[in-house]
Specification:
The chain is largely without helices or strands. Helix content is 13%, strand content 7%. It has one domain. The chain is built from two helices and two strands, in the order E-E-H-H. The longest helix has 7 residues.
């Protein structure tokens, strides 16, 4: 789970917290666990105990009409087409 020593930061534009290492949103990490980091992140961990289920503590889950939020895609594995990655991500 997200702890006080976790490398996270807050976006100055939108106010959302995210992992400084992989860019995953901190809300789902806090609500579901470290499997909501990107798989390439050193903070990533897998769980098989139902933590992927819809959580009332997760802002991303509550924003959806039904179901739980999706785990972030891994940027290094090519899961995300480059057209979806902001142009300033690698500058």
């Amino acid at each position: 789970m997200l702890s006080t020593d976790h490398p996270n930061t807050t976006c100055v534009y939108c106010g959302k917290m995210f992992c400084t290492l992989c860019g995953a949103k901190a809300g789902p990490i806090k609500a579901h666990g470290n499997q909501f980091h990107r798989k390439s992140c050193i903070c990533y961990a897998t769980y098989n105990d139902g933590r992927n289920e819809r959580s009332e503590d997760c802002e991303e889950c509550m924003a959806k009409a039904a179901g739980s939020c999706e785990q972030p895609k891994d940027l290094e594995s090519g899961d995300i087409p480059t057209s979806e990655v902001p142009s300033n991500t690698f500058n």
